[in-house]
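Ops channel
N.P.: pipeline sanity check, posting one input/output pair.
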């Protein structure tokens, strides 16, 4: 049936499936009147541009949607940003955009990925998309848009020292550093005590995500932390 209301498209990260986003998708369905759809894409078998094209085909199926929102984990956010760049560059039409909630997005690349860019085993596991982040970040980043719509970022940070990743510097979720998630223009920013793999399952993330979709902030308007600029040292 045609979907005419507000849609939330939920995207998973690298090497995962739509099932990894079940808990947050189910929460949004139960706690709101959004039509929540989880999308799978071949994250380890194609490049980010291919995933963006797959997303475009999904969105094309909702011509009557009143509003499209996104909630994505990790690589899924780069897929969205690539899609938005394609829309702008090729002047494609699409339903009105609402909000985007980015969970642990590698918006500034990934130092962890760069450390293993020469490992054939790791490169095989990551596939083309992971290799783009590891070895071709300057090229890939030029193909990513900064969303024109309202977007917020939730980063994970382990509170237990024993879980700190010794391979990357700074606060991190064992995969992406807090600094790497930041993107200028974000309407709000939140750090949650969680690791990368399970960030989307954290109850605080569920509540903050829905609050942002509805109101444009993670906790409250007075506690909102917009990102105006991003300063990240060169690797």
């Amino acid at each position: 049936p045609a979907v005419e209301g507000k849609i939330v498209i939920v995207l998973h990260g690298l090497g995962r499936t739509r099932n990894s986003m079940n808990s947050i998708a189910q929460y949004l369905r139960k706690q709101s009147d959004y039509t929540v759809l989880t999308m799978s894409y071949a994250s380890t078998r194609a490049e980010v541009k291919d995933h963006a094209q797959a997303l475009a085909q999904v969105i094309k199926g909702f011509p009557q949607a009143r509003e499209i929102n996104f909630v994505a984990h990790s690589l899924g956010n780069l897929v969205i940003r690539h899609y938005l760049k394609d829309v702008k560059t090729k002047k494609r039409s699409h339903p009105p955009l609402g909000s985007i909630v980015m969970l642990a997005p590698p918006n500034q690349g990934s130092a962890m990925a760069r450390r293993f860019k020469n490992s054939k085993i790791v490169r095989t596991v990551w596939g083309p998309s992971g290799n783009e982040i590891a070895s071709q970040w300057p090229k890939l980043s030029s193909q990513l848009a900064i969303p024109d719509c309202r977007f917020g970022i939730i980063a994970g940070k382990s509170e237990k020292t024993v879980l700190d990743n010794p391979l990357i510097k700074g606060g991190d979720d064992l995969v992406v550093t807090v600094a790497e998630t930041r993107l200028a223009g974000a309407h709000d920013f939140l750090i949650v005590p969680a690791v990368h793999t399970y960030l989307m399952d954290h109850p605080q993330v569920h509540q903050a995500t829905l609050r942002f979709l509805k109101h444009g902030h993670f906790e409250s308007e007075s506690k909102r932390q917009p990102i105006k600029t991003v300063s990240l040292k060169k690797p």
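N.P.: looks fine end to end. Residues 128 and 134 are 10 Å apart (CA to CA).
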